[in-house]
Structures are given as structure tokens and as C-alpha cells.
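Sanity check

After download, print the first record. It should look like this:
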Amino acid sequence: MKTSKNKKAILENDKIDKNKFYSPSEAIEIIKSINTSKFDETIDLSIQLGIDPKKSDQQIKIATVPPNPLGKKVRVVAICNGEHVKKAENSGADHVGGDDIIEKIINEKWTDFDILVAIPEMMPKIAKLGQVLGPKGLMPSPKMGTVTNDVEKAIKDAKTGRVEIKNDKLGLVNFPCGKKSFEIAKIMDNLYFLVQSLNKSKPASSKGNYLKKVSVSSTMGPGFKIDVSLLKEELKKYNGAIA
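Expected C-alpha cells:
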């Protein structure tokens, strides 16, 4: 009952207009001003892309570290050998190994981790883990920066607060851009940086409007529709500020 009353109060808040399209900064200001929970909520962006998700050359799959990481604890497994083992251990990987970890995943269906980093040399052996890791989105990928000889960077990026952006079968991408406790400036820095990273990944074969619909919300709060033209205007100012 308390939850329903709280939701009703939120929806009746005079700051919220379901039919209005907000600028990103205006939406974030309202989200931060509304008391929706007792925990530190994540602020998420949802974007409908102008892509054909059925075409392999229009799939969006990127990973990047925003200026102000969210601080989420990430469990990293590194599959490597030789000199890479010590580098992976020193970089903070939670589990480091080679054939032993591959066998553990196969025999125990072990997936108690968030990111798997591997060196290219081990990929022929890792390929057979597809049935276990594939459905959970844990297979390492060069495109995501998790198949690399620079295991130090891959692990540090993951531990720092890497954000993954992948489209679903409807062409939607959903990803976090901050915590509600962050200062507005830090949330906006992340939002602009991540949207800019997404823009840079626009497939060459995707024609027309790339950012079709955009909304932002907190974990327990309502969604706010974003005016794409205002988003582009703010993004231009952001790019000018960092040029």
C-alpha cells in the first residue's frame, strides 16, 4: 500500500508532464528533485535507434568508461597465459587462469562473474564456451575490448566502471549514465559522453535519423521523454566545451 501511495504521489507531482518533451538537463534536474526511494537509484537512458536490428552490420555493441564512473562492483575473470597472468593479477582480476577456468565453466556451468577478458591466443579454446556464456552475454569480444593482449587496460576499465551499450531485437539501447546522488554536472557529463560515443558508432548503412526516441528515468521514478533536437543542441555545446 505504501508503495502504491508513493507512486501515486510521484505521478501527481506537478513537475511531471507525461506529454511534454524535456531537455536532458531539465529532466535530470526534476529526477534529482523527486524523492522516489531510500536507496541511491541509477539514472538510465533509453534510446530507440534508427537501425534495422535484423541486419548484422547494424548491430550496436560498444563499451566505454564515462568521465564519472558509477562505482558498481564488477567481478572480472581473465583467461590468459604466460606474462599476461601476472599483469591480470596485478590489475585486479578476481580470477585468473587458462585451461583450468575453461574446464570449470564447461563442467560446472560456472558463470559467477560479470566480465570475461581473454587474450586472442586463448580464443580457439574459449569458442567452445559459447553455449554456456553466450545466453548470459558473457562471451568476450574484440568489439567490446574484452579480447585483447592489453589485459591490464581491459581489466582496469571493467573495474573502473565500464558501460556497455548493446541494442536489443527492437533496436533499443538502455544504459546507465549516473547515480541519483551525483551532482547534476557529473550526470550530464556522463550522459553527453555516452550519447556521443553512441553517435560515433552509427553504422554506415543506417540512414535517416539515428536517435529516434530518447527517454531518461531513475530506477524507481517515472520516465521523461527527451526532445532529441534539444539533446543535439546540448551535445554541440558539450563538444565545444571539450574541444
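If your output differs, re-run the checksum step. Summary of this record's structure: The two ends are 51 Å apart (CA to CA).
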